[in-house]
Amino acid sequence: MKVEQIYTGCLAQGAYYIESNNEVAIIDPLRDVSPYIERAKKDKAKIKYIFETHFHADFVSGHITLAKETSAPIIYGPKANPSFNAIIAKDKQSFKLGKVTITVLHTPGHTLESSVFLLKDENGKDHAIFTGDTLFLGDVGRPDLAQKATDLTKEDLAGLLFESLRNKILPLADDVIVYPAHGAGSACGKNLSKETTDTLGNQKKTNYALRKNMSKDEFIKEVTDGLLPPPKYFPANVKMNKEGYEDFDQILKRSTKALSPVEFEFLANETEALILDVRYQNDYVNGHIPRSIFIGLDGTFAPWVGALIADVKQPILLVAPLGREEEAIERLSRVGFDNVLGYLKGSFLSWKSIGNEFDIVVSIEAEKLKNIQNSFEEISVFDVRKSSEFLSEHMIGAKNSPLEYLNDYLNNFPLNKTFYLHCAGGYRSIIAASILKSRGIHNLIDIRGGFKAIKLAEIEVSKYICPSKL
Fold first, then answer.
1. 178-209 core/surface letters (b: 16 or more CB in 10 A; e: else)
2. Which contacts of 291-298 are long-range, i.e. CB under 8 A and separated by 24 or more positions?
3. Is 20 helix (H, G, I), strand (E, B) or coil?
4. At CB < 8 A and 24+ separation, what contacts does 384-388 make?
5. What is the pLDDT of residue 149?
6. 3-state secondary structure of 22
7. Do 31 and 177 belong together in one domain?
8. In the sheet where 419-422 sits, what is the strand order?
9. Which of 335, 329, 289, 331 is nearest to 312 (CA)?
10. Are 392 and 315 members of one domain?
11. Is 191 part of a structural domain of the chain?
12. Are 111 and 194 part of one and the same domain?
């Protein structure tokens, strides 16, 4: 028996490859299915089953394409109602895979169809659970995403999740391995661990939601407390996963159009396409197409695209690093952004080489900012980190305008006075700068290196003090 976690850091997502006696099951595959097919070929094995823990909201799964390519059936737990052919398993129904079995445990709460898959080894011993978004390491799945599809409140769904965990998961042995669908960085939970696997026994000790003697009311309150609004692209991804989507190969073929600067500019002017610059942030700072939006491939690219671009059908023109154009198209498609019209051939250098207008982002070193402060000049600083990061520690006098809700703070930015932006290290503040500049707000200066540089420069900061320590 082989169990392989195929983890995609950008999405903080784990897909799983299970092989026994030349038969393979794939759990929660990503949209580009070629890695799973190639992996099975390497093992001289056949993909027999495709298991989906639920209708995913944060990425487009590869289940439909993989089923088409391999003839393997797609398997959901009870209450699923997809628009395509699938096996809707009964609770505790088992599927034979070589010398092992995979049993469906229906665990409603995150969504009504959410299920955990229990892997039993050749001897029938419980070996691992693939928990989807029911159980994470350090957290459980948020219970508010399925509200609109049901008549249930988030409190109702949290109550179902409490029962699912107590009746289906906690009775399992402590040595059972937990393989979740997501880790830290996912918007599907609020307190996910950076680790990607653990034992159930350790989770029973460390996961707040599995606490002993926890009442149902306590669970509901703690799980629903502090939930931030989900990213706007989530409903569109659920719809695609439930109703179907175009194969990635077709999207790649349609989208990989190399456009000359003249063609690129013409399309930008004649369509409502968004110019998305996915190069490294310092390259964008030093020169970019006016009104283009920066979201760099070398950060948590896909989730930020989903959080900041409202419509997955938005036409997009790409400015990508040379040789990484297909990578950008693939990573956009993982979150359902399939309408790429093409990319700038030769990247930004080709735009600049023919004398086209370009823009920059003005930056300042933290040490220089400290000197300005010491001259008693009044300055405005906007911190675009998450509110939790800001509350933990922030520059004295800074205002918090979290990147994911930047549009809600637009009226707070001064129009006739220079202000400063920063995040933790520089990635998010450049995204924020690009959005503000695209809206005509140019009187900004980025603090290079972000809050890390601010602390190194020994600029005075305010730290959160736990009330229990006062």
1. bbbbbbbebbbbbebbeebbbebeebeeebeb
2. 291/359, 291/437, 291/438, 292/319, 292/434, 292/438, 293/431, 293/434, 293/435, 293/438, 294/430, 294/431, 294/433, 294/434, 295/431, 296/427, 296/430, 296/431, 297/321, 297/324, 297/327, 297/328, 297/331
3. strand
4. 384/421, 384/422, 384/423, 384/428, 384/429, 384/432, 385/423, 385/424, 385/428, 385/451
5. 67
6. coil
7. yes
8. 363-364, 444-447, 419-422, 381-383, 399-400
9. 335
10. no
11. yes
12. yes
DSSP 8-state class, residue 165 = I
Nearest to 262 by CA among 351, 368, 149: 351
Domain identity same for 33 and 178: yes
Residues 376 and 345 both lie in one domain: no
Domain that holds residue 428: 363-469
Q: Within 10 A of 452 (CB to CB), how many other CB atoms are there? A: 14
What's the CATH code of the domain at 112?
Answer: 3.60.15.10
Domain boundary among 293, 318, 353: 353
- Using DSSP's 3-state secondary structure scheme, residue 185 falls into coil
* pLDDT under 70: residue ranges of the chain: 147-149, 190, 464-470
Question: How far is Cα 466 from Cα 75, in angstroms, rounded to an integer?
Answer: 47
- Tell whether 358 is covered by a domain: no
* β-pair partners for 74: 50
Structure tokens at 205: 């000790």
Cα–Cα dist 333/45, whole Å: 28
Same domain, 71 and 199: yes
Pair 234, 148: CB distance under 8 Å: no
Answer with the one of 293, 328, 353 that is the final residue of a domain: 353
Residue 438 counted as domain residue: yes
User: How large is the greatest C-alpha to C-alpha distance in the chain, in angstroms?
Assistant: 74
DSSP codes joined into one string, 236-271: HHHHHHHH----HHHHHHHH--EE-HHHHHHHHHHS
Question: Rounded CA gap, 354 and 356, in Å?
Answer: 6
Which is nearest to 220 in space by CA: 303, 153, 290? Answer: 153
Tokens coding 439: 């809206």
At 312, the amino acid letter reads: V
CB of 323 within 8 A of CB of 254?
no
Which pLDDT score is estimated for 88?
A: 98
Determine the residue type at 455: K
Distance CA 92, CA 94 (A): 6
pLDDT in tens, 304-361: 999 999 899 999 999 999 999 999 999 999 999 999 999 999 999 999 999 999 999 9
Domain of 294, CATH number, reads 3.40.250.10
Same domain, 124 and 230: yes
Looking at residue 308, what DSSP letter applies? H
Number of domains the chain is built from: 3
264 and 200 inside one domain = no
The tens digit of pLDDT for each residue in 254-285 reads: 999 999 999 999 999 999 999 999 999 999 99
Domain annotation covers residue 240: no
